[in-house]
Amino acid sequence: MPALQLHLGPLKEPLGFIKILEWIFSIFAFATCGGYSGKTALSFACPNGTDLTLETNFAYPFRLNKVTLGPVDAKTCNSTWEKPVFLVGDFSSSAQFFVTFAVLVFLYCMAALVLYLGYLQLYRGAGKLPMIDFVITVVIAFLWLVSTSAWAKALTDIKTSTGPSMIEGMEPCGKDQKLCRFDEQRSLGSLNVSVVIGFLNLILWAGNAWFVYKETSLHQPPSAAPPNPADPGVPSGM
Fold first, then answer.
1. Where are the compositionally biased (Pro residues) regions (predicted)?
2. Is residue 212 within 8 Å of residue 15, measured between CB atoms?
């Protein structure tokens, strides 16, 4: 294997510059989703006329079916909320898929940058490395589409499970939900940003596929055939 030779030239080309952007955006993707912690709260009307505020925290990986509200102290509310009530939904598979994939992309970007900047001659001198890079780039672009779409759907359900409609079906609230009033849902802004960044990553990787393709042998023009010594060639004009 050739020795490491630092070349900053690829950073001035789309091949390296876009890879830097992909590296940065992958950090934002897993940080905005994996680092989120939220809160939801509702008010419960006790038979004695007092209102109690019940709140709970939820966070990544969003196993909401393990997040509880209550129970309420029997002395405070006449045992009307005697057992804990769980929120609805387990969205850990979509969230963990999105975050884990973003982390793997982050690591691949680092490895690719080391190859571009330190072993450029090896990368452009061997026909297989650009082709492998191209195939991985196309696969990653596709997986950004899949993971972000799945996470966007899960986020919509999370908003429903932690928003005003969460009191529907809660037994202590009664069938008409008059005993419960939704109070608060902490902003889900960073989760919305994670979805936007996911689709931006899709655009970046899909666009970068063209520049990686240009490095492959598929894009290189075929080499001219060597001249035949026995062929005198076409004589020039008189």
1. 223-232
2. yes
Taking alpha carbons only, the member of 86, 31, 82 closest to residue 60 is 31
Q: Does the pLDDT of residue 226 top 60, yes or no?
A: no
Taking the C-alpha atoms of residue 151 and residue 153, their distance in angstroms, rounded to an integer, is 5
Find the helix or strand (DSSP H, E) in which 154 lies: helix 128-162
All residues at 6 or more sequence positions from 165 whose CB lies less than 8 Å from its CB, including other chains: none
pLDDT band per the 50, 70, 90 thresholds, residue 93? very high
The answer to whether residue 177 scores a pLDDT higher than 70 is: no
Nearest-angstrom CA–CA distance, 80 and 71: 9
pTM of the model: 0.83
Residue 228 carries which DSSP code?
P
Q: How confident is the model at residue 4 (pLDDT cuts 50, 70, 90)?
A: low
124-147: b (≥16 Cβ within 10 Å) or e: eeeeebbbebbeebbebbebbbeb
Q: Please report which residue ranges of 73-127 form alpha helices under DSSP H.
A: 74-77, 92-118, 120-125
Cβ atoms of 24 and 110 within 8 Å: the answer is: no
Per-residue pLDDT band at 164 (split at 50, 70, 90) = confident
Spatial separation of the C-alpha atoms in residues 112 and 210, rounded to whole Å: 16
Sign, CA dihedral 83-84-87-91, equals negative
Instruction: List the chain domain ranges.
Output: 9-37+92-177+187-213
Q: CA dihedral in degrees (154, 158, 161, 162; nearest 10)? A: 180
What distance lies between CA 138 and its chain's CA centroid?
16
The candidate with the shortest Cα–Cα distance to 205, out of 115, 122, 109, is 109
